[in-house]
Write a sequence for this structure.
């Protein structure tokens, strides 16, 4: 499963980079409230799940305030840093650790146990969902969203991300 997770996260990084390039090609998109709100949310969730999976405490309210204030260039830089950190985390992660339980601290109602594998699967899926929304919004703004399907990434030979 570790190798498959590495693929999911490799795709996530490539797709994030492709989207950032498309947004920067239409600078007005980085001033659009709907698009930038989701973009901040994507990167906040990515960072928060990495913290949870690493056993760190997460104060989601503080993190939300912090991410809401980040200028777009700094948000992009933090996204790039996150991808480097999750890749390092996956290099250190063992197959046996994937069955360990993690807790999502902002969940209020009782939930069934969540494994590290579940949490690590959630992040790329969540990001993909919101990238789709941002692709639709980018098209509405007059931009051209990139094709970032997982299978396209595989067909292209699993390219490394190009953020600009």
């Amino acid at each position: 499963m570790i190798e498959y997770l590495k693929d999911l996260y490799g795709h996530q990084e490539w797709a994030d980079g492709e989207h950032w390039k498309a947004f920067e090609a239409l600078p007005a998109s980085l001033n659009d409230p709907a698009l930038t709100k989701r973009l901040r949310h994507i990167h906040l969730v990515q960072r928060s799940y990495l913290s949870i999976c690493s056993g760190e405490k997460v104060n989601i309210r503080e993190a939300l305030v912090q991410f809401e204030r980040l200028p777009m260039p700094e948000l992009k830089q933090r996204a790039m840093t996150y991808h480097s950190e999750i890749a390092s985390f996956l290099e250190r992660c063992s197959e046996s650790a994937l069955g360990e339980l993690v807790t999502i601290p902002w969940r209020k109602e009782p939930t069934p146990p969540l494994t590290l594998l579940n949490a690590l699967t959630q992040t790329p899926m969540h990001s993909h969902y919101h990238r789709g929304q941002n692709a639709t919004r980018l098209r509405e703004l007059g931009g051209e969203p990139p094709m970032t399907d997982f299978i396209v990434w595989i067909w292209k030979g699993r390219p490394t991300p190009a953020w600009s």
